[in-house]
Q: What sequence folds into this?
């Protein structure tokens, strides 16, 4: 019995250290920053047991030198107006369910991968920061990971879990979808089959028809274009009408889709 004791001690020491390493983490911060679209930030605070997601308010600060010339506003001016500037949109949830734990584990797994060195011209940038109880931070950055890479698969799963945690927050849902576009994973999201309600994100005309054929049959389709940033007349409406006799549209009020009111 005695000769097995050292092995047992080693085992419990390893387990104890790994558990201690987990409890030492104070904050995990995940940034998803796509080119040309709004991104989002998410932070898990282990002390408060809160998950906070936020979407930045997009604005630009300029100092007019003359009628045709400007420069960036200086830091003194910025500090003097900071409290009056548009604020980011924030969403909060308690880290108490299985999705919250799954998200934490996915983020920690992602933190084990090596950062990418060279950014592309455009795409999506993922930044991850893990802070421990001693305020030491580990930072990793991933530039447009391939969807078939281990990092890409983890990031796509992270998006899905965040969507489940904040499933009632449409603005955050749109921001997550804006990042998902760069992985080429989804042309649309089926919100419901009865009635058939589909939210479109993209419309690659070469592949759209085969994708539409995977949707359930129905007499009527509800087509949500509230996060669709292309011209529906290019091919989207034409392809949908081949399969569905009746289309009901859900549109942004700020966009002109070429409809005339009867």
A:
């Amino acid at each position: 019995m005695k000769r097995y004791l050292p092995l047992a001690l080693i085992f419990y020491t390893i387990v104890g250290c790994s558990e201690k390493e987990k409890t030492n983490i104070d904050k995990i911060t995940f940034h998803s920053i796509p080119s040309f679209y709004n991104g989002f930030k998410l932070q898990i605070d282990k002390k408060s047991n809160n998950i906070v997601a936020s979407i930045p308010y997009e604005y630009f600060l300029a100092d007019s030198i003359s009628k045709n010339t400007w420069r960036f506003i200086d830091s003194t001016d910025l500090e003097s107006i900071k409290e009056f500037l548009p604020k980011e949109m924030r969403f909060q949830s308690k880290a108490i369910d299985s999705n919250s734990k799954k998200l934490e584990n996915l983020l920690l797994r992602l933190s084990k991968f090596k950062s990418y060195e060279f950014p592309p011209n455009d795409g999506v940038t993922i930044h991850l920061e893990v802070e421990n109880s001693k305020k030491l931070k580990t930072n990793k950055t991933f530039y447009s990971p391939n969807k078939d890479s281990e990092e890409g698969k983890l990031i796509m799963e992270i998006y899905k879990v965040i969507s489940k945690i904040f499933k009632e927050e449409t603005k955050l849902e749109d921001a997550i979808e804006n990042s998902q576009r760069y992985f080429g994973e989804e042309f649309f999201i089926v919100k419901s089959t009865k009635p058939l309600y589909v939210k479109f994100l993209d419309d690659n005309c070469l592949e759209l028809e085969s994708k539409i054929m995977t949707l359930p049959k129905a007499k009527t389709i509800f087509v949500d274009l509230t996060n669709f940033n292309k011209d529906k007349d290019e091919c989207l409406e034409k392809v949908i009408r081949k399969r569905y006799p009746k289309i009901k549209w859900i549109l942004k009020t700020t966009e002109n889709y070429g409809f005339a009111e009867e």
In short: The chain has seven helices and twelve strands.
